[in-house]
Amino acid sequence: MPSHSRGGGRGRPSRGGPRPTPSANPSARRGGAPNASSQPCKFLMRGGCKFGTRCQYSHNLAPSQRPPTQNNQAPAPNFPGLSNDGFSKVEQNTTPGKVFNSLKIYVEDTFKFQTAEQVYRFLSLICSASSQNSTWTAQDGQLHLHQLVEGNGIQRIADAICFPKQTTRAWSFQRGYIPIFTYLASDWVVKSTMNSDINALYGLVHNNFQIIRDTVETNIRKCMTARSFKDGSYSCSGKQVFKVLFVTLFEYVVLRHPAKVSSSPHRNCIYRYLTRFKDSPITNPGVRDFTEQIVAWFDEWLVALAATPPFQDECRTYDEEKREFIIENLRRDKEKILRVVQRGQTVVTNSEVRMPYELLGDVDPAIVAALERNFDFDGPGELCENGPRHDNDFEEIELIRVAPTRDELLCEDDPYLPPNFFEAPHFHEPRSVDRLLDIQFRLLREELTSVSLYCALVDVGPDITYVDDYFRSPIRLAVQLMAEDLKKSKSGQTTLSKLLTSKGGRYAGPATARESIIFSVFTGITFKPLQLSNRGISAGIEFDTPPGRARSDKPGARMEYWEQVTKKRLSQDGLVALIWKDHIGNVDIYVGTVASSGRDLVECSRQTKGKDRVSIRVSFFDAKANVRIVQALQSRRSSNDTRLLIEAPVFYEGIRPFLEALKREPELLPFGQYLSLQSKDELAQTNISPPLYSRTPGFSYELKDLFPQAAGVRSLKLNTRDPDSIINARAQLIRASRLDPSQADAVVDSLTREIALIQGPPGTGKSYTGLELIRVLVKNKIAPILLVAFTNHALDHMLTGILDANISHKIVRIGSRFSVDERLGPYSLDTIERAQGKSRLGKSGGAIYRQMKE
């Protein structure tokens, strides 16, 4: 299956294996007809064939020839109302082997759609990869996706998109277009981690957007006029049409858009076109209009279902509970995509307007007034009276680099730090998730990098007290102290000059400073050649061995010293800064992370020269650092530059993932409606809904496993949609279950709320209550369940409790390999991966990795 540029460009050589010649491939010799070669594929019989549709052998295996399935794979939750696939109909009798064989004719280089029936058949085949199809596994679906994108399959999808513009014959929108969106919106596509493949697939939407818009609007308009989505005998429901369109638009707008970030000062209006397609509301305003038109038709469809005459649709045949559940699901999708496109529109047209906020409750107006005055001239980025403070100061956190830049580290202006309470001024809407993420990101990042001379607001009981709190975080203060000393080096003795004389050591901030800070300084910096590894490009940094035991004459003593030091300093992924003063006095700062391991540094110290010199490898964030290092290595002149390496006394990698996660699209934040800032009165009136899966029609919890056998309880149902059922379940659990009254209340409240917090003093049975909750979820086949703990000990304690209570043995422990209980060893991710062996996806990944190395 030859590859073409993603989105329908020119062809390029095939990847993943050589193309069989016509003489070696009977299917190619006979025009690509399916099942041309009846000999079964031996690779598929062993568990997987990396050639997929390019394979010359048959993938249509008899049941006796199929490899055994993995029996330890957790079953998929049976909640169709929560699955995108549950809104669509696909062929149920097409196995992966049949699809792979049948697709061969469509992916030939010379193939072109001649008839609409060919388009229908092709789209039906690719949509067979669905979680609804019991003959397919998730692994089959991912391999199917990868082979479509890597070969001519993606070109055929592009051809299907353009087909209605190129044909004059009869063509069905329901059979020739809706399936395209059905596949784009399918669970195995939108939930896939193969981002490059999904981005390529959604690139088809971006590259052909105008064709898609014209085709969809023309045909849905006809359907709305006809009051039906049916096409003759082909049944199609509005629930499928609007579901796949809403999901596809959201994925395209929020996650998959390939456009670049604009340099406009109003960047906050363009990043929304979704994290990867950032400027679509500006460069392609038709997306917003198209979305709003689809939303208008959806609202019209809802009204027409109950009108006279009614809209002819399958949803009218459902009972009220099922119909309302489906409509609620569709409304959530509608509101989500509508908020995204309208948020962009609001910022574009009203970029200078600040959202109003209210003084509610018992907040001191004087405090808020002071914050208002400060915000008027000291907001972030362009909202600051004098403009951005430095090159990393933006209104939108999505554009802020987590690692500090040179300008930021040397900037002496106070950063923008938003107060973290509802009534305080902010440039985002008061109750928006945008505001929540902005506040959390800026305050957390301040602990890592920035300088702050700011006021903190501390909540003390019912009153909010204004407290002055001056502080600076380590890395920025360290850089500024070093820069000041470098400028004074010729005028007199400084703390740094003493360290240069002693060839390194610990730098203690001057006693006159408001802050107390101590950090390591490494001197005599020289470089080693750049290297490329799976951690990226890194430069070798050699420096003077610091004073003390590190300079011992005994290699063993030196190794022991560095073994202890690297547990907290110069550890892998730690944040460091290279400070480089050239011969004319210019000072540059290059920030990076330690790429080498602590073991590498220990081994380096063991060598003879380890008494005087040791080295590490550093990955710098700025490519300029690597270029300058290469120039220094190539230069034959002696250098008068002063080069120092300092280490930030914070663990960068421990904070970075959280900061990156806070930069996400707000609509992707779970439980945003509960987490966003609200007034105290609003919080007191918050109504928490039951879990969405528990509202699936026909679903109810079975709680009989919470009772001892002596209680004789054969069944106890809990229906979260029925208040009487909740009252009865609570009473029965208090009366006869293994739980005490407070534990029973906690279990019922947790099962009937989508977010819950169980608290209590030591010894009240919080862990036991958690185990019983897990028991209920497992017995009701609600999976997967994610357990998160602050420490390894706490996590292992809960996992051993699950094993001891015989709740489940389907456990995968992620994290540290060291466990309190040796029984958890077989459940570690590393152990399970080794036992599983390689999958078909692993083979494809290996081929791609080899290509990258070449």
TrEMBL record:
Region Disordered: start-end pairs: 1-39, 60-90
Zn finger limits (C3H1-type): 35-62
One GO BP: regulatory ncRNA-mediated heterochromatin formation
One of the record's GO cellular component terms: nuclear RNA-directed RNA polymerase complex
Keywords linked to the UniProt accession: Metal-binding, Zinc, Zinc-finger
InterPro entries to which the protein is assigned, alphabetical: DNA2/NAM7-like, DNA2/NAM7_AAA_11, P-loop_NTPase, Znf_CCCH, Znf_CCCH_sf
Superkingdom of source: Eukaryota
Keyword Zinc-finger on entry: yes
GO molecular function annotation: helicase activity; zinc ion binding
C3H1-type domain span: 35-62
Short name of one Pfam family: zf-CCCH
Biased composition (Low complexity): 67-80
Protein's recorded name: C3H1-type domain-containing protein
Protein source organism: Rhizoctonia solani
